[in-house]
Amino acid sequence: MNPQQARTYIANLFSHAFNRVKFLEFTRNVLNNNFDEHKAALWNTVYIKDAFKSHVARYERLGTYTAPDGDQLDVLIVHLTHDAKLERTRTALRNFIADHLKQRDEKDAALVAFVSPTEAQWRLSYVKMEYSAVETVAGTVGIKTQLTPARRSSYLVGANESCHTAQSRFIALLQETRLAPTLAQIEDAFSVEAVTKEFFKQYAALCSELEQALTQLLAQAQLLRDEFERQQINALDFVKKLLGQIVFLYFLQKKGWLGVAQDDNWGAGPADFLRRLAQRDDYTNFFNDILEPLFYDTLATDRGHAAWCAQFNCRIPFLNGGLFEPLGDYHWQTVDILLPNRLFTNTEQAANGDVGTGILDVFDRYNFTITESAPLEKDVAIDPEMLGKVFENLIEDNRRKGLGSFYTPREIVHYMCQESLINYLDTRLTELELNVPRDDLETLVRLGDQLAHYETVKTQYAGREMPLAIQQQARQIDQQLADITVCDPAVGSGAFPVGMMSEIVRARSALTPYFNDATERGAYQFKRHAIQSCLYGVDIDPGAVDIAKLRLWLSLVVDEDNVQHIKPLPNLSYKIVCGNSLLGVEKTLFNEQAFRELEQLKPLYFNAADKQQKDQYKLQIDAIIHTLTNGKAEFDFEIYFSEVFHQKSGFDVVIGNPPYGAKFSPELRAWLLKIYKHQSNPPESYMLFVEKGYELMRHQGVIIYIVPNTWLPSLTFQKFRRFLVSHFQWLGLLVIKTKVFAAVVDTNVFVFKKSTPQEGIGFPVFFFEPVGIRFAHNLTWANVPKDGNAINVIFPPTHQNLFQTIKKRGVVLKSVADVYNGVKPFEKGKGKPPQTAQIMREKPFVVEGSKPSGANWMPLLRGSLIQRYVTLWNNDYWIKYGEWLAAPRDSSIFEAPVKIFVRQTSDSIISTLCNSGVVGRDNLHIILPKNSTDLLFVLGILNSKFTDFIYFFINPEKGEALAQVKKTHVEELLLPKRSFDAPDEQEPIIKLVNQILVAKSENPKADTSALEREIDQLVYALYELTPDEIVIVEGAGK
């Protein structure tokens, strides 16, 4: 079928209540009539396990599909009970399908329609099992299914639900009529990332168009321009807040809280309330006449229990919290902002054929869900986490480079939040002398919600019980979860506070079955307590702070179940704060009375709903802060978050994705280097945040950051590494071996504890790969250099120990040779005479092609013109050598009769030999011998597999983007000590290198691998390596 037919076909299925006949036909079309309907079966309630009977009434299998690669998928229809809700039974239903797949031939996945008898919507899900191969005691490999999680991705479809996303994702499958799809192709139709990327692009375009319109309006309207200048409002901030407000209302109308009839409960409102407002005919300007009164009057005013709004003729809740307060307190009643109506809705045709390009038109095409995705449960819809990614997209390029902020992928956020919680609980319970094994805490945090489901229904499954130690210490563990304090000093869009809140709630909820009295133990109560007592964040960008608050508010909206009374949202001004985390102020810390008043007022402000009372509390709080900071306007942790430092002397957990590569003015850089004692010059911003994190932590607190990996290998950061190995106990590292940021940067996650390092205590290293997170190895503290030298965490202890052994048998290259950088031809202001802008444009001193006439022209090599044992120069690359070059180096380097060139841009050592009179560019290093060192011997060692092993230890950048071989790396390479004590042992290698050079000079593509293997074996012999050690050397870095 063609694309339009496919769209219509999908709309007929997904825009209506569930229809079994249509669903079966859809399945046949997607699977190309290639699934076995003889496997159809029906299971009624008698065959439903007790654990699921409260959720599942009956279910049926329409058939089983076998993909071309042999993977199998069941097609199921699950009919829910009257009491089960699609949004409230996520974990139980996912577990139900997992149980079905395990029990019935261990299928790989299921395509499932979940159908409720009481709802017009139904859910189409793809559930994928994650069976893991394990080695049994007997040494055979089996499949581990016990407690193996299933992952579910879903569309919510049916009456009043948009099917735009499903149409765009399933068209390819429906159009392919020849080939049977793989399960990966079916799973791709449920890709959350593909959908969100499309939405981000459209959201950013809306933001840009809205900003242009507002900027034009400001140029035309003097009164509006004066108001914005008076209140210090810029157009982009206004636009970002406006879009955030509209998105928030899309989530609220999904909840059914907008447009409720006079006698109806909350939740009964129409899902298209904003569209209905736009369709009214009683306004002139949609923003000025409809949205502003809705935002700043209706939603911001407490109208009592009835919450009746005469203007809109319906019930609309009072929200509080500050989201629906005018930016900068601009006078919205008296100042008109006449944004064109077409910006909100129109009938213009988009490039892809969609009708309507306004904000409401675009938003109406997407499904919104108020539940944030979890590792095992994702909706193919726009969820609150989307706001974080939108924030990343909306930062202007120059600001992003200046702030160094990038969005953290959700898988990494989940990992970091769980790790921090496990380590916090392990530390606190040990301090309290409570015997709860760490493995049990990991079970609680990672699997607690699944275990709690089975515990609640009192169904016994082998291996599914909560560990006994968790049950016995449930109250103590719960108290520690309630008491935790967490700070993200670069909070961005709020991913980590929201993630930590979710993990705290999941863990506390999992403990509820072990409490006799479960009142006040709902998700809403847990979330509100966590937001008020546990979570803190700071960011320099006010837009980021707004988004972070928005996500916390939405998280409360998700679990507000009281259909009679909606509680006002809390005020978060002193929980998520706009400020510079790195600065602080000289302050007065000895005014106990002021701090006591401050800490009494903040909870009152948090819960205040009356605007007058709220404003009064804020005035009092700000006055006290003004006194304590001696009138300075800068943010300071110990004042704004004083209760944490008075109660615990610091945070239990500091977590985040600190900015990297931020630019500092010379004045600020000098000030930072004065305050932070363990930094290089110039300072790297993420390292400043690590040192700040140390200051913010209590003793035994946990810090977990995702950062660039430069802190491990970079030669510049010795001082910083000495700080890390002397001030922290290392608890774990996650090496991220796949790109998780759009920026070209390789990252890792570290987990450290603020305590004196203990010898003999190791730490695990994990690898984050496309397939997920896997354990790599444990490292001992002895494997970590204490002198600031580069740290290699890629290799396990066997490799680490071998490297240390080899070092004792070798000498560093710089002891027998000198290493130089190549020539830098151009840099403005350098050279004699200083190079001008014209020189920089024309670059007259380097020429490709025939040799120019005139003096001083010499052959020039660059990195790409050398390979191992090969020079690819072909009389076609020249440099006019002399003092006019930006950095000509000493001419004797290039006049030397023989030298080794080493390529700089590479993740391994690539070197060749060259004679006199050839110049190397600055992407090459040059090696000249000291005394009688034979460069042929050195070349053989440098190009050997042995040096690959050594270099990967010195600089573990194998396979990384833009890996660089630095001059200092080359100087630290090893040569066998014994060969210098007995020079005749060098001769066999020198002979083989000569043979290779001759062969390569005659034919650069000559196969010399056999000769190179001989050199490898000779090098191993010089280092006296055993066969097992040779295996380690040759396998390293693969």
Automatic annotation (TrEMBL):
- Which PROSITE patterns does this chain map to? N6_MTASE (PS00092)
Which keywords label this protein?
A: Coiled coil, DNA-binding, Methyltransferase, Restriction system, S-adenosyl-L-methionine, Transferase
Tell me which InterPro entries the record gives.
Answer: DNA_methylase_N6_adenine_CS (IPR002052), MethylTrfase_TaqI-like_dom (IPR011639), N4_N6_ade-DNA_methylase (IPR050953), SAM-dependent_MTases_sf (IPR029063), TaqI_C (IPR025931)
Annotated TaqI-like C-terminal specificity domain residues: 859-973
* Gene3D superfamilies assigned to the protein according to its UniProt record, in alphabetical order: Vaccinia Virus protein VP39
BP GO annotations: DNA restriction-modification system; methylation
Q: Which reaction does it catalyse?
A: a 2'-deoxyadenosine in DNA + S-adenosyl-L-methionine = an N(6)-methyl-2'-deoxyadenosine in DNA + S-adenosyl-L-homocysteine + H(+)
Keyword check for Transferase, yes or no. yes
EC id? 2.1.1.72
- One GO MF term: DNA binding
Chain segments annotated as coiled-coil in the UniProt record: 207-234
Q: Which domain of life is it from?
A: Bacteria
Instruction: Write down the Pfam families for this protein, in alphabetical order.
Output: Eco57I (PF07669), TaqI_C (PF12950)
Domain Type II methyltransferase M.TaqI-like, chain residue ranges per copy: 534-733
- PANTHER family in alphabetical order: DNA METHYLTRANSFERASE A (PTHR33841:SF1), DNA METHYLTRANSFERASE YEEA-RELATED (PTHR33841)
Q: What is this protein called?
A: site-specific DNA-methyltransferase (adenine-specific)
- What's the source species for this entry? Chromatium okenii
Tell me the lineage of the source organism.
Answer: Bacteria, Pseudomonadati, Pseudomonadota, Gammaproteobacteria, Chromatiales
